[in-house]
């Protein structure tokens, strides 16, 4: 069995002092590890009727499209401002080390469609909470939330309780 955690490098003081960045690019470069990560993220949702997988820019695209393919579902991107050409819904949100805005095409999701939200990492939960809010604006039903890495010591999971269960493959309980 491949040890996924061993393929994640910790880079101290990036992108700013005090942050311990989890660099998962070595995991992406290992075909077996990448396949295993996708399977471990997708498996809890097999056979649950997922219509669409949603991933936030940009690293959510990496796992989101692969999981969509694994679940025979479509993929919808959530983007940063100014990247989508049609009418959008937008949400401003706080990050672990700043603030940002996310947008989705206002017609990207149909009312009642079952969606799975996916990202590479969850820290404080701001990006995923904003993604959940955008999903709700479109009328879709959140069937699940999946991340590869959860920094559980930052309690981001608490911000998502109203949106459903969070599935994380790798948890870091301390800095």
Explained architecture:
- With 175 residues, the protein is an alpha/beta fold.
- It has a single domain (48-172), classed as Rossmann fold (3-Layer(aba) Sandwich), CATH 3.40.50.2020.
- The protein has helices at residues 25-29, 31-42, 59-70, 126-137, and strands at residues 9-12, 20-23, 52-56, 74-78, 88-95, 98-105, 114-122, 141-151, 166-172.
- The protein has a 5-stranded parallel sheet with strand order 4-3-7-8-9, sandwiched between helices. A two-stranded antiparallel sheet has the order 1-2. It has a two-stranded antiparallel ribbon with strand order 5-6.
- A hairpin with a 7-residue loop joins strand 1 and strand 2 (20-23).
- It starts with 8 loop residues before the first strand and ends with a strand.
Q: What characteristics describe this protein?
A:
35% strand; two-stranded antiparallel ribbon; 5-stranded parallel beta sheet; 4 helices; alpha/beta; Rossmann fold; 175 residues
Percent of residues in helices comes to: 10-25%
Say what the CATH topology is.
Rossmann fold
The top level CATH class name: Alpha Beta
Uncertain regions: pLDDT < 50 for 5+ in a row? Answer: none
Shape annotation: globular
Indicate the radius of gyration in whole angstroms. 15 Å
Extended strand count: 9
Percentage of β-strand residues: 25-35%
In total, the number of domains comes to 1
What topology does this entry show?
Blueprint: E1 9-12, E2 20-23, H1 25-29, H2 31-42, E3 52-56, H3 59-70, E4 74-78, E5 88-95, E6 98-105, E7 114-122, H4 126-137, E8 141-151, E9 166-172
Parallel strand pairs: 3-4, 3-7, 7-8, 8-9
Antiparallel strand pairs: 1-2, 5-6
């Amino acid at each position: 069995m491949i040890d996924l955690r061993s393929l994640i490098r910790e880079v101290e003081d990036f992108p700013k002092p005090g942050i311990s960045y989890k660099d998962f690019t070595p995991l992406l470069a290992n075909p077996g590890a990448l396949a295993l990560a996708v399977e471990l993220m997708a498996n809890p949702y097999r056979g649950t009727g997922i219509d669409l997988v949603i991933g936030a820019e940009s690293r959510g695209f990496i796992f989101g499209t692969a999981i969509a393919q694994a679940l025979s579902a479509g993929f919808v991107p959530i983007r940063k401002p100014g990247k989508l050409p049609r009418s959008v819904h937008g949400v401003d949100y706080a990050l672990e080390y700043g603030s940002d805005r996310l947008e989705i095409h206002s017609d990207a999701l149909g009312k009642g469609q079952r969606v799975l939200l996916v990202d590479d990492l969850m820290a404080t939960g701001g990006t995923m909470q904003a993604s959940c809010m955008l999903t709700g604006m479109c009328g879709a039903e959140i069937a699940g939330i999946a991340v590869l890495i959860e920094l559980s010591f930052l309690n981001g999971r608490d911000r998502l309780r109203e949106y459903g269960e969070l599935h994380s493959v790798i948890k870091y309980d301390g800095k």
